[in-house]
Amino acid sequence: MERHPTHQKILDEAIRIIETSGEAGLRVHDIEVAVDVTPPSIYHFFGSRDGLVSAAQAERVLRGFSQFGAVSEAILEKVTSRAELREAIRELLTLVYEPSRAPARLQRIFAFGSAEGRPELAAIIGDAARAFLHENAERFKVFKENGWTRPDLDLEAFSQWLGGQILGRIYIEIGCEPAPNPAWDAISIEAVTFVVFGSLSD
Hints:
mainly alpha; Arc Repressor Mutant, subunit A; 72% helix; Tetracycline Repressor, domain 2
């Protein structure tokens, strides 16, 4: 969606502040100074400070989904066989579970938490999450049609479960420095492989 340049600058600065200092650190005056705007501009585009926070949190989630979608598509579009699909899933999950990806998962969780008490934000995030999961399911449709997955695999349910599986890694990431956890990764990759193919090897 194309936005007015001032709208975009304010939103980008709000996201930067939230990601470094949390919602409590977001002060309208600091944004005015950082992007050289007046209070009426901020309130014109976002209605209130809370409106700005909601917009910034929603945008963080949308950007995260977009980035993951691009990575997933780049890996899966090269698949030409069942064996390559198996390897592509391993490659994708290995990449996703890199410690460098931990902040993105935490940001998503914190944005989800921000939706509590903000019904409009919850609706935006919920719609975006469902659209994202549907897109992921659609990417696997050709593989199922080619007979490379279990024939009874419900792609929508699989995509929803996979999203939860990936996000569940925050239990070992929150509140500590991101670090490799090969045992967790191996169990997760085995579980996903079994769900998709019905076996751990061809």
